[in-house]
Specification:
- Helices cover about 25% and strands about 30% of the residues.
- By secondary structure, it is of the alpha/beta class.
- It has a domain of about 90 residues: P-loop containing nucleotide triphosphate hydrolases (Rossmann fold, 3-Layer(aba) Sandwich), CATH 3.40.50.
- A hairpin with a 4-residue loop joins β6 and β7.
- α1 packs across α2.
- The longest helix has 11 residues.
């Protein structure tokens, strides 16, 4: 388990550090509203040479990202608005998880029972208005 304390100014450096630490796969982001989950995912997508800027898929539930070269980079899920786990099954979450691409999940606690065992959990805590602490847990 790794702990990292950072400010928003340090996000590009933190994204690089996380990508060196974390194997490609499913990243589950835990933290309260406003903790910076989407902001951190934006920095990760940018560091992975994402073609477009990442944005929260709150209403669409999933965004698909590609690299500047056109290859599939990954998927970004926001399950905040989910009422039942069956909604994730209906959208084909298991098919997404089977794809060899990055998977960024906000509000994973809403689909905890569906998460595969081999994921990386990233807990974001508010230290103060400008500072966050990340705890990274690999399974």
């Amino acid at each position: 388990m790794s702990k990292i304390i950072y400010t928003q100014v340090e996000l590009p450096e933190i994204a690089r550090e996380l990508l060196e630490l974390i194997p490609k796969g499913i990243l589950a982001f835990y933290g309260p509203m406003g903790a910076g989950k989407t902001t951190l995912i934006k920095a990760l997508v940018k560091e992975l040479d994402g073609k477009d800027e990442a944005s929260s898929p709150t209403f669409g539930i999933v965004n698909e990202y590609h690299t500047k070269a056109g290859a599939l980079l990954g998927y970004h899920f926001d399950f905040y608005r989910l009422n039942k786990t069956t909604e994730a099954l209906d959208m084909g979450i298991e098919d997404y998880f089977a794809v060899d691409a990055w998977q960024f999940i906000e509000w994973p606690e809403k689909i905890e029972a569906l998460l595969p065992p081999a994921i990386t959990k990233i807990y974001i805590e508010l230290v103060d208005e400008n500072t966050r602490q990340i705890t990274v847990q690999h399974k």
